[in-house]
Design a protein that fits this description.
The structure is a single chain. By secondary structure, the protein is mainly alpha-helical. It has helices at residues 2-9, 15-26, 30-44, 49-58, 61-69, 73-86, 91-99, 102-109, 114-129, 131-139, 142-150, 160-174, 186-189, 198-212, 222-232, 237-251, 255-263, 266-273, 279-292, 297-305, 309-318, 321-337, 340-346, 349-358, 364-380, 382-391, 394-400, 407-420, 436-439.
Length: 458
């Protein structure tokens, strides 16, 4: 690939490109300068990599940056457009713009006008290129500049382009691993939702979801969560997925953060989403419920009161493999963390049958989750649950699991037989269970549709 770029850089420079570059550097009159810059912008808008590299190789980028900083409004706009397209190229071309001093100049010009929006677009491309370039933009103060602008009085619906570019920039700034060293105040950014622009809403929701992965405290405000929950009711998966991811991430946190999800009135909407036709959405919803049911007894009761459990049991019965797993986690967490009264109410014959059927699943992870659910149910009501297992043939399934290839599964099966069904286990094995083997549920988003690369060409 490196050789390809080298050859691209050695391609003959067209006469038109030479004249345009020379005119950008030497034109004295404003009309001649505008003509040269406009021609160069047109040439780099063709999206041909050799042409972008030739512009970089020519050494003209510092001059283009200077024209963004000091020139007539039309020339500034065209120059910013040139930088935007160069930064939509490869990482070397983006780095060349940074090295030419583009970032601080672009941030200085960000505003709610044509030039400012073009500069913001360019900065978004730079931030989306890599985590290193993202951090350059962060360190230069883009988030602070956007926050100041969004605090101004303006009607978002009348400035949709600015709102779209601001959301796109924030999304690229907040994404990537390692996580960015930025803590945006999302309050002013919520104004973007009022623009009515679907693309802007999508990017802002993704920005919120990225931050919620490691900095849950930043997404706990009541207005922010209210906005996120509102988008749970949007039929468009591109908006629904990041909204779900945010709530799921928040529910992986401490009890207060999980409670914030419940207090946002999300549970009724999440319960309705358990009937969603799209499998990736069902997976996200079940994952979110599994994180909530890993909380306190009171939080488990909130899920029960929302009527979600019957639908989760149905998904254990009929869901796709990955959906089954998340639904099983949600039910298992209820059984293991609930009060005796809650466990008794939850472990209906239908629920226990669904869990029992999963004992014969070909996914060892699902089998293990089902076993842990039965282990917790037996602790709560050994007589009733053990009788159910025997009468419905599931005890035999547990006995067969002693020969399972997965170490955790066969040890857990043996432990249960030795503990609750005296004399049923094989041999005298030591069935001390390492709970960390299976008890750690994923604390990352599980749905599909993750955002792609952050570059965007004009």
């Amino acid at each position: 690939m490196a050789a390809d770029r080298q050859r691209a850089g050695e391609c003959p420079v067209s006469e038109e490109l030479k004249i345009a570059i020379q005119g950008c550097c030497t034109s004295e009159g404003p009309e001649q300068l505008l003509a040269s810059v406009t021609t160069l912008r047109r040439l780099v808008s063709v999206e041909q990599d050799p042409l972008l590299q030739q512009v970089v190789n020519s050494g003209v980028l510092p001059r283009i940056v200077h024209l963004v900083k000091e020139s007539t409004p039309q020339v500034q706009f065209e120059a910013a457009w040139i930088l935007t397209n160069v930064c939509s190229g490869d990482s070397m071309q983006t780095r060349a713009c940074i090295d030419a001093g583009a970032v601080p100049v672009l941030i200085e010009k960000v505003a709610i006008n044509n030039l400012g929006e073009q500069c913001l677009w360019c900065l978004s491309n730079i931030a989306g290129d890599s985590t290193n370039t993202r951090d350059v933009v962060i360190d230069a103060g883009l988030v602070e500049a956007l926050t100041r602008l969004l605090l101004l009085s303006f009607h978002p619906a009348e400035h949709r382009e600015f709102c779209r570019n601001a959301a796109y920039a924030l999304s690229n700034v907040c994404r990537g691993k390692p996580a960015p060293h930025v803590e945006p105040d999302f309050g002013p950014f919520l104004k973007i939702f009022d623009s009515g622009d679907t693309e802007a809403a999508k990017d802002l929701l993704w920005a919120i979801s990225y931050i919620s992965e490691e900095k849950q405290d930043l997404v706990m405000s009541v207005p922010l969560l209210a906005a996120v929950v509102r988008y749970l009711q949007n039929p468009e998966p591109l908006l629904l997925t990041p909204a779900l991811r945010t709530l799921g991430n928040l529910a992986t946190g401490n009890a207060a953060q999980t409670q914030a999800v419940i207090d946002s009135c999300a549970l009724p909407v999440l319960t309705r989403l358990l009937d969603h036709p799209k499998q990736s959405i069902l997976k996200e919803v079940c994952w979110t419920f599994s994180n909530i049911t890993a909380g306190t007894i009171e939080q488990i009761q909130s899920v029960l009161d929302a009527g979600a459990m019957s639908k989760l049991v149905e998904l254990m019965e009929n869901g796709r493999n990955d959906v089954q797993k998340e639904a099983c986690w949600a039910v298992s967490n209820c059984i293991s963390g609930g009060s005796r009264q809650q466990v008794t109410a939850l472990t209906t014959d239908r629920c226990l049958t669904a869990l029992g059927d999963l004992l014969r699943h070909n996914d060892a992870r699902i089998v293990g989750i089902a076993l842990e659910a039965f282990d917790s149910a037996l602790q709560a009501d050994q007589q009733r649950v053990s009788l159910f297992l025997e009468e419905h043939g599931f005890l035999n399934a547990i006995e067969m699991l002693q020969d399972h290839m997965n170490e955790h599964v066969y040890y857990l099966a043996g432990h249960m037989l030795a503990t609750y069904f005296d004399g049923e286990s094989d041999g005298d094995a030591d069935y001390n269970i390492n709970e960390s083997t299976l008890g750690d549920h994923l604390e990352e988003g599980v749905g599909e549709g993750e955002e792609g690369e952050g570059d965007n060409c004009v």
